[in-house]
Sequence to fold (236 residues):
Amino acid sequence: MARAKVEFAMAPLLLFHITTASIALLGGVAAMSLRKGSTGHRSGGTVFVTVMICMTLSAIPLGLLKTQTLNALVGALTCYLVASGWMAGRRNRFSYVQIANATLGLVALGVGAFLVKFGVEALDSPSHLKNGEGASGYFFFGTIALSSAALDLRLVIGGIGNKHRIARHLLRMNLAMAIGIISVTPRLNRLAGHPIQSDALLVLPTGLVLLFMVFWLWRVLVGKRGKAALDRALAG
Fold:
């Protein structure tokens, strides 16, 4: 009876989660496909950020209600990635931006600490699981969270140049989109009656987003313009 009540309470939240995830991914595809800095890119990015935050905030209570600790923490991590990626896409240099970045860094640090803690608990348990998940998942996302927090500390203390600001924006937005895709794709496939049977096809969209991310990071950081800017910085 208690389980039935929980599932009944989750149904509207789950529908909201899947709907917002689908809209967010459409906005993300538009932002990825359109010329960077164009009106269409900014509009798609605004849709992606707004709806993705709604989706990730709904993932947290869903994970807690289903005792899926990893899903709840990954929802919080993805929300952080979107928010900090959006901040990186802005040129605003006022003090409140630094305060916001420091606050987001603390969020990432807290999420990362919980992920590592639960990963250790999974290793120490007889089943090597924590709430149904192995240690590897906790440690993988914990590494992302703690690495991001360290980069936030670097940003707050010393600042970053325009090239690295853009790279920060690209990395965080694309990571958030990849996590969103890998989270919602199996659910959509299940709701549609499992038309896709191949696991490789299910993870293909996530792989394409990560390849896109690597391409643009290379272009910004290592490409001809990026390399020339880096050479000038080192020479100066």
